[in-house]
Amino acid sequence: MKDRGSQTIAAAPFGRPFVFIRGVPAMKFLPPEGPPEIAFAGRSNVGKSSLINALVGMKALARTSNTPGRTQELNYFVPDGFSGAANDLPPLALVDMPGYGFAKAPKDEVDRWTKLVFDYLRGRVTLKRVYLLIDARHGVKTIDGEVMDLLDRAAVSYQLVLTKIDKIKPPAVERLVSETLEKIRKRPAAYPEVIATSSEKGQGIDDLRAAILTATA
């Protein structure tokens, strides 16, 4: 059980509305490096948009869709009320990355999105951590392992987040957390903790907020 102080800390940067500031279809459109950035990655339909909405306490900040691959850009969100000037930067920026593993998009579009993501991961100094989302109903898939390989090679810190844990029974969640920890145990860039969440039920959202604060401190 968390104490009252840790709950306050976990909520601190999320106590005001977030706003969408930019969609980035290519590296040249990235905003100037400023606040620390936290990125969210995962297979299409893993529940990424729903998790971001739950994280910021808003229903429709990140667009949700039943069509895999709808997010085709790096989408930037920041807390509202900051001018963006050097002395008035937001405390962090959330970056919604294109989902991977979708099958319906044309190959040239997939290649373009993939290159954008890889270039961003390799070249963004202000990127503090990637949260790699894993659907609790399916666990870590081969393509997730390939993304972790990339993050390890790029030396980008990442942490695994299980989504949709309300869709499986509690004992299965515990087993999945243990299995997932074992799979990342020898990975050099993986943060050695797994966060289990449900956007629908609000489970694990405060834990994720606290982890983000730690990563951007």
CATH superfamily: P-loop containing nucleotide triphosphate hydrolases
Question: What share of the residues does DSSP label as strand, in percent?
Answer: 15-25%
Q: What percentage of residues falls in helices of 4 or more residues?
A: 25-40%
Number of helices: 6
As for the CATH topology, it is: Rossmann fold
Q: Roughly what is the average pLDDT, rounded to an integer?
A: 87
Write down the secondary-structure element order. HEEHEEHEHEHEH
Instruction: Characterize the main sheet.
Output: 7 strands, mixed
Principal-axes geometry comes out as globular
Low-confidence stretches: 1-10, 66-70
What's the level 1 CATH class? Alpha Beta
Which short descriptors sum up this protein?
single chain, 217 residues, alpha/beta, Rossmann fold, 6 helices, 7 strands, disordered N terminus
Structural description of this entry:
This protein is α/β, with parallel strands linked by helices. The chain has one domain: Rossmann fold (3-Layer(aba) Sandwich). It contains six helices and seven strands. It has helices at 4-11, 48-56, 107-123, 142-154, 170-184, 205-216; strands spanning 18-24, 37-42, 74-79, 93-96, 127-135, 158-163, 195-196. A seven-stranded mixed beta sheet has the order 1-3-4-2-5-6-7, sandwiched between helices. Helix 4 (142-154) links the parallel strand 5 and strand 6. The longest helix has 17 residues, at 107-123. The two termini are 23 Å apart. Mean pLDDT is 87; it is low at 1-10 and 66-70.
Question: Helices and strands in order, then pairings?
Answer:
Blueprint: H1 4-11, E1 18-24, E2 37-42, H2 48-56, E3 74-79, E4 93-96, H3 107-123, E5 127-135, H4 142-154, E6 158-163, H5 170-184, E7 195-196, H6 205-216
Parallel strand pairs: 2-4, 2-5, 5-6, 6-7
Antiparallel strand pairs: 1-3, 3-4
Helix pairs in contact: 1-6
